[in-house]
Design a protein that fits this description.
Elements lengths: L2 H22 L7 E8 L9 E4 L5 E3 L5 E6 L4 E5 L6 E4 L8 E2 L11 E3 L4 E3 L7 E5 H4 L18 E5 L8 E5 L13 E4 L2 E3 L7 H4 L18 E7 L2 H4 L10 E6 L8 E13 L8 H14 L24 H6 L3 E13 L3 E13 L7 E14 L5 E14 L7 H6 L32 E19 L2 E20 L16 E24 L2 E24 L15 E25 L3 E12 L8 E11 L13 E15 L10 E9 L2 E8 L8 E14 L4 E13 L1 E6 L8 E6 L1 E18 L3 E19 L19 E4 L2 E4 L6 E3 L15 E4 L4 E11 L2 E11 L1 E3 L1 H4 L35 H11 L5 E3 L2 E12 L2 H4 L3 E15 L17 E11 L1
Parallel strand pairs: 1-7, 13-16
Antiparallel strand pairs: 1-4, 2-3, 2-5, 5-6, 8-9, 10-15, 11-12, 13-14, 15-16, 17-18, 17-48, 18-19, 19-20, 20-21, 21-22, 22-23, 23-24, 24-25, 25-26, 26-27, 27-28, 28-29, 29-32, 30-31, 32-33, 33-36, 34-35, 36-37, 37-42, 38-41, 39-40, 42-43, 43-46, 44-45, 46-47, 47-48
């Protein structure tokens, strides 16, 4: 038996012994079983924290506000809930203690915050941690947890790419740190289990459907989430080492409650419409544009294929294609049922959710999710042994057609024929019409199954010493299929089933993680010390297979790849990732006002060569709660004040697997009927970790008994040693080689947060929260930039997220053609003149939320705002004058308004000068304009049924809205996704109800 096997066996024996020891321990005779109810004076409070003061022994109230906890007669209960005043109540031999909490902003600092490997409070944290809870999440009819965070967290910028169910999101936590597009994703942790956010989907199957790959986070049911914490600065993230370079998103699901068994039922239905569409030309305007374009090109006889203008199509027919193709209504139906209960030692929760969602496109395609969550917590009678088990499983299915109809909605001629003929079949108008619904004859299916399981076992060896082990497992399976039968093509082409295509993609990813930990706490006089030591062992493997079958004898056999005469393996990837680490934390507190927090981690990753496999990361954070000084004890103005700061380093290994090795792939080119190998990557063992150095200074102030709470944080992050591909000469046969680039990116910014309790009466209350982020991103260094292939992408001293393009100077009054600045004065406009810099990174962003309660009524509304520039409609539009519809802005053209016009002279494409100028115009600063907006992101009106009305049953009915109203000067459809190609986020109206019994 090897040494490793012996070590594993002894660890197993040790854990088993601890488990048997804990089971054998019994409750001492002096312990009490204390129970009661927590309310706000009228309604029960579900999810309130009830703990034994100065211990970790605690429970949360169930759906009816009930709790049961084991305690000694001399113990003291501490009861808290977000937004309410914390109560401290001595037990004094009582077995029934009912509590009524009062709403108060001062309680915001007492709620426990998940910091990953440890917990803290808002008042005593030394790092930057943002948080939202189930209370905010449940007020939004969302399918992706990232959607719940939009506009609610300072320093966290989230953009929704598509309004199609399952679509992706972009998230940036304090800016762009890496030059690699896939190197800026944060680390996601679900109940202690790392969750890979990289999609297993293939663009070969879902191409044209989503603005980005299907988000794996859709497999996490928002209804099951208790809280989401985002770790931002070095003090909060360094304990995660390389994995925390871009921030950490901690997702905690709901857990069971004690006391009696309770049932929860939640149901809602939602209607969705596209947030905005552009006003397009009507038939008269469109045909006038076409006639003028032909006249400009000197064409008097319209071509045979100009069906829109040569009489083949009706000149009087006028269709609003945006209304026809993306103007439908999507429907969401969601049902969640749960049961929770337990006793003083064991609690459980079991819930199930079923959700279906359609799209705004024609047809009956749907996206559905079935999710199950279970949680079991047990503690021994003497409170020494504890075990927490969490399991989350989701099965997602999508049959949404494999192309986004948004582009066709904006490009089809307004006098194009009807979609269906008189018999209800797709209309091809005698071969003159490319029907946009033709792809719907093909089918797309996507099914993912995701399992996240976690177990935490802990044993108190001594009163201040705890051994803990966290065990996690994640298994994700994805199957995609896309059929493209010959019937999707215009019958005039005579395509047979021999050209039909079936594309299959199968992806599997599973990972496990084991993290043994040792926690020690000690308190003496005015000193408190906490020490955490732990190790991490993580393994992940992925397997992706993409196949294509063609040459079917019949379209009826297209769903079976075995019926294809030609089968190609488009991609067959198998990768493994290994990660090991040792981490630690030391937290020291003196007189509850001076706090120091030191964290460190030594990481080892299989993604680097043997010489660079390990790296060290760490941070120090400090806080001074100056409001606890004696000279401020009696201040009537300042109720809380804290200065905090942090400095540290984190790293990144987000480069994919096997990047340092010579790698080969199977070649599709056969030699004598035998498949061979072809090289795909060169050996490069010397590159190492990216490094992100983070600095933060912050001040937090509570005024007037914390009725006004202000927080201001300044951060300065420098990311260096960039992991990018160094370009190679074409003669090598490779585009680049993986290496560390001598480039430095700085992210500096200011985050402001405000919480106010404006009115706090028994029957009426009003509170406000607001956040504002002012980021600044800059490329400080890039050695050899001017001579590299990145010279047209980046500029030293400018943000990373810039666009270098032509400088549009206007329209020539005589020729009517776009003019651009000749930077090098060579008399020609070439790619060398693409020197104008447009910054499309956000200049500032944030959110403003208000919550108003009156008796049994609650009103919540959130405004999200962003100041930014972005691509306008010019970037997505076709050449004005061709056989494609245009926004009405194109009517402002030359010569009607001369050199002051917005659009140059029309052409059908025959005028090469106008044609070339059009493409330069699309890549010039003219295609960049103000994309700022203020959006009523969410609105929720809730009525809580009076307790006397339903007796033992509590419940509420609510009306919610999402993306309801947008104020913007944006020259396009939607300023968030800035595209006329992909569906914008939907405006949704939701009605639902919740019952607890």
């Amino acid at each position: 038996m090897t040494k490793n096997h012996k070590s594993v066996r002894w660890r197993r024996i040790f854990v088993c012994c601890l488990f048997l020891l804990s089971i054998s321990m019994t409750l001492s005779a002096q312990d009490l079983l204390v129970s009661g109810e927590v309310t706000d004076g009228n309604l029960p409070i579900s999810g309130a924290n009830v703990i034994i003061k100065n211990t970790t022994n605690g429970v949360v109230t169930d759906f009816d506000g009930h709790y049961t906890i084991t305690a000694r007669p001399t113990d003291t209960l501490q009861i808290s809930y977000l937004g309410y005043t914390t109560l401290t109540i001595p037990i004094q031999n009582r077995t029934n203690i009912n509590v009524s909490l009062q709403e108060d902003a001062t309680a915001l600092g007492e709620v426990q915050i998940n910091a990953g490997y440890y917990t803290t409070t808002d008042r005593e944290k030394t790092g930057s941690i943002a948080r939202i809870t189930a209370k905010e999440i449940q007020k939004q009819p969302i399918s992706n947890p990232l959607a719940a965070m939009q506009g609610r967290m300072a320093g966290v910028n989230i953009t929704q790419n598509s309004g199609i169910p399952g679509g992706g999101f972009n998230i940036q936590i304090r800016g762009i740190n890496s030059l690699r597009n896939n190197g800026n994703a944060p680390l996601y942790i679900v109940n202690g289990v790392p969750y890979n956010s990289q999609s297993l989907g293939s663009s070969l199957t879902s191409s044209g459907l989503l603005a980005s790959a299907t988000s794996p986070l859709n497999s996490i049911n928002p209804s099951d989430i208790e809280s989401i914490e985002v770790l931002k600065d070095a003090d909060a993230t360094a304990i995660y080492g390389s994995r925390g370079a871009n921030g950490v998103v901690l997702i905690t699901t709901k857990s069971g409650t004690s006391e009696k068994t309770s049932f929860n039922l939640q149901a809602f239905t939602s209607l969705g419409k596209a947030t905005a569409t552009m006003d397009m030309m009507d038939t008269a305007q469109y045909l006038a544009m076409r006639r003028e374009a032909y006249a400009n090109d000197g064409v008097t006889a319209y071509p045979a294929n100009a069906y829109d203008i040569n009489g083949a199509w009706s000149p009087t027919k006028n269709t609003d294609w945006a209304k026809e193709l993306i103007g439908g209504t999507s429907y969401i139906k969601n049902l969640r049922a749960g049961v929770s209960g337990g006793n003083g030692n064991t609690t459980f929760l079991l819930s199930g959710t079923y959700r279906t969602e359609s799209t705004v496109f024609p047809g009956d395609d749907t996206y559905s999710q079935a999710a199950v969550q279970s949680s079991v917590s047990h503690r021994s009678s003497n409170d020494k042994f504890k075990v927490d088990l969490n399991l989350n499983y989701a099965n997602n299915k999508s049959t949404i057609q494999a192309n986004d109809l948004t582009a066709q909605a904006y490009r089809l001629a307004p006098n194009a024929p009807d979609l269906y003929d008189g018999n209800g079949n797709l209309n091809w108008e005698n071969g003159t019409f490319e029907n946009p619904l033709a792809n719907g004859l093909g089918k797309y299916s996507n099914q993912s199954k995701n399992l996240i399981a976690n177990a935490v076992l802990s044993y108190s060896v001594a009163p201040n010493l705890e051994l803990k082990t966290s065990l996690g497992y994640n298994d994700l399976n994805l199957d995609e299929a896309r059929t493209l039968p010959s019937t999707v093509y215009n019958p005039v082409y005579g395509v047979s089933s021999r050209s039909s295509i079936l594309t299959l993609n199968s992806g599997k990813r599973n990972s496990w993680i084991v993290e043994p930990q040792l926690n020690w706490k000690h308190k003496w006089q005015d000193h408190e010390l906490e020490v955490l030591l732990g190790t991490t062992f993580q393994s992940e493997s992925s397997d992706i297979l993409t196949q294509r079958g063609t040459g079917f004898s019949s379209n009826g056999l297209i769903n079976s790849i075995g019926a294809a005469t030609i089968v190609q393996i488009l991609s067959d990837q198998l990768s493994e990732y290994r990660y090991q680490a040792v981490f630690g934390r030391v937290n020291y507190r003196f007189k509850d006002r001076y706090i120091a927090n030191i964290t460190g981690r030594r990481d080892g990753s299989s993604r680097f060569g043997p010489k660079n496999r390990f790296a060290n990361f760490g941070a120090i954070g400090a806080a001074w709660i100056f409001s606890r000084e004696k000279f401020l004890d009696k201040s009537s103005f300042l109720s809380f004040g804290k200065l905090r700061g942090s400095y540290g380093t984190t790293g990144s290994d987000q480069i994919g697997d096997y990047q340092f090795l010579d790698t080969y792939s199977i070649s599709n080119n056969l030699y004598n009927g035998v498949a061979g190998l072809q090289p795909t990557r060169l050996f490069s063992p010397n590159f190492g970790w990216e490094t992100n150095t983070k600095v933060e200074l912050a001040i937090e102030l509570g005024l007037f008994r914390d009725r006004v709470f202000l927080s201001s944080a300044w951060y300065n992050n420098r990311s260096s040693n960039q992991l990018v591909g160094i370009p190679l000469p074409a003669t090598t046969g490779f585009n680049n080689i993986q290496a560390n680039l001598d480039a430095v990116i700085r992210n500096r910014g200011l985050e402001l947060e405000l919480r106010t309790l404006n009115i706090d009466k028994k029957a009426f209350s009003w509170s406000t929260t607001a956040n504002l982020t002012i980021p600044n991103n800059k490329l400080l260094r890039f050695d050899g930039l001017e001579g590299s292939t990145y010279a047209n992408t980046y500029v030293i001293g400018e943000p990373v997220d810039i666009i270098k393009g032509y400088h549009f100077t206007g329209i020539d009054a005589d020729s009517g053609i776009y003019q651009f600045e000749d930077y090098n004065d060579d008399g020609l406009i070439t790619s060398a003149d693409r020197q104008y810099i447009s910054d499309v990174s956000p200049q500032w962003f944030g959110g403003l939320n208000n919550r108003i309660t009156y008796k049994n009524w609650e009103l919540d509304f959130l405004f999200q705002f962003v100041r930014q520039d972005g691509h306008n409609y010019i970037y997505s539009s076709n050449l004005p004058g061709t056989m494609t519809n245009m926004p009405i802005e194109v009517l402002d053209h030359w010569p009607a308004n001369g050199e002051n016009a917005e659009i140059q002279r029309y052409t059908t494409g025959l005028n090469s000068q106008v044609f070339s100028a059009y493409f330069r115009h699309r890549t010039s600063n003219a295609a960049i304009s103000d994309a700022s907006y203020v959006r009523l992101k969410s609105l929720s009106m809730t009525y809580n049924f009076p307790k006397k009305l339903l007796g033992s049953v509590t419940g509420s009915i609510y009306l919610q809205g999402q993306n309801l109203w947008t104020i913007t000067n944006y020259k396009g459809a939607d300023p968030e996704n800035q595209s006329l190609t992909f569906l914008p986020p939907l405006r949704q109206l939701t009605m639902g109800t919740i019952f607890n019994f």
